[in-house]
Amino acid sequence: MKTEIGLWIDWQKATIIVASDAQEEVSEILSHAATKPSRKSFRVKDQYYNRVIAQIRQATSVLIFGPDEAKAELQCRLQEREPSDRKVNVEAGYDMNPRQIMTKVRSYFRPGAMTAPAALAV
Fold first, then answer.
1. CA distances for 90 relative to 42, 44, 62, 66, 120, angstroms
2. May I ask the CATH architecture of the domain 3-120?
3. Residue 120 — very low, low, confident or very high, per pLDDT cuts 50/70/90?
4. CB half-sphere exposure, 71, CA atoms < 13 A
5. More confident residue, 11 or 41
6. CA 111, 30, 102 angle in degrees (round to 5)?
7. What residues contact residue 78 under an 8 Å CB cut-off, 6+ apart?
């Protein structure tokens, strides 16, 4: 079964949209990382990325997007620690609400599908 995952991520939060053939599920992971770099914040960030990777492990295709460098850090981590033949695409993003994230993920994985005008409202 094909499982596609859209992942909006920054250093504070990850919103994960799992779109399988059967349904779509949304989940969120918080990092609890401090804003100032410290030894503890590096451990917290490491644990955060590990939790995110555990949630997307089953994906055959992943879209990672977000406003800061967390997306690139996660992509590097995936390549190093989880080598597979899954397709991973990274795109720039901005702060988005859950509805905007869902719309982006749907349009990425289902570009020919019609989207209701209300779903495009910001």
1. 23, 23, 8, 9, 22
2. 2-Layer Sandwich (3.30)
3. very low
4. 20
5. 11
6. 15
7. 53, 62, 88
